[in-house]
């Protein structure tokens, strides 16, 4: 049922859509450049998510011009809701490679070669159900346990540093991003539970505060501490195949 603002329970901000379409679009272009330059193809899902975010706010701008038109309204909703699942998928892939890189598979409850398969499959299901929070929360728990278990590993002091950043900086970034994504998912769950006419859904400011800004923050953080800046340009592709696991385990 439409209102005087079309399909929206409020008058959507047109300047807000333009600002964040440009911000997410610029970030997406930089992520694409960084991914190609570093040949870090496991950032593909993150980059696609960044492009979707930009497309979502562009579609939202179109929707504000015709607020009663169902097509742009559905497009902006889906493109804004779904990308965090793609961000999480990238975190899973980096986590598996990071465990291999620090030569401490025993510190991870789940073997690194299975991390991506297990959690990405869960993320696909969450993508379909639009309830990705559970899978992301599992990632944070695993990362936290792995960090504690690594302190007791004999290999933790022999991890080399090939790039500009230490592996601990990447781990902290991943954990921080995962927490932000979880909090954003909690907001969306509460919003959906209240319904289209609920308090959160009927006030646009909360979407920008608890969804737009946090997700833009996640995108921006991943510009500064990149996996290829930790693993080293020559190590990125090796960490993706099984043969390199044997090679890395011989570094002792």
UniProtKB/TrEMBL annotation:
It is found in: Membrane. Its main location: membrane. GO terms for cellular component: membrane. The chain crosses the membrane at residues 15-33, 40-59, 79-102, 114-132, 166-187. The keyword Transmembrane helix applies. Keywords: Membrane, Transmembrane, Transmembrane helix. InterPro entries: RTA1. It is a multi-pass membrane protein. This is RTA1-domain-containing protein.
């Amino acid at each position: 049922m439409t209102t005087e603002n079309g399909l929206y329970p409020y008058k959507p901000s047109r300047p807000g859509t333009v600002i964040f379409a440009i911000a997410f679009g610029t970030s997406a272009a930089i992520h694409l450049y960084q991914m190609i330059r570093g040949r870090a193809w496991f950032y593909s899902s993150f980059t696609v998510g960044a492009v979707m975010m930009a497309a979502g706010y562009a579609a939202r701008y179109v929707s504000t011009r015709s607020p009663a038109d169902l097509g742009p309204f559905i497009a902006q909703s889906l493109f804004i809701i779904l990308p965090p699942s793609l961000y999480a998928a990238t975190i899973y892939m980096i986590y598996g490679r990071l465990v291999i890189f620090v030569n401490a598979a025993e510190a991870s409850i789940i073997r690194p070669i299975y991390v991506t398969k297990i959690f990405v499959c869960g993320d696909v299901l969450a993508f379909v159900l639009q309830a990705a929070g559970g899978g992301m929360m599992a990632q944070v728990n695993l990362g936290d346990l792995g960090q504690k278990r690594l302190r007791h590993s004999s290999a933790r002091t022999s991890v080399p540093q090939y790039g500009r950043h230490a592996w601990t900086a990447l781990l902290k970034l991943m954990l921080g991003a995962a927490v932000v994504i979880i909090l954003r998912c909690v907001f969306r769950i509460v919003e959906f539970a209240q319904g289209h006419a609920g308090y959160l859904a009927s006030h646009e400011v909360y979407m920008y505060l608890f969804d737009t800004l946090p997700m833009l923050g996640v995108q921006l953080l991943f510009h500064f501490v990149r996996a290829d800046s930790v693993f080293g340009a020559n190590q990125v592709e090796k960490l993706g195949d099984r043969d390199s696991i044997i090679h890395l385990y011989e570094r002792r």
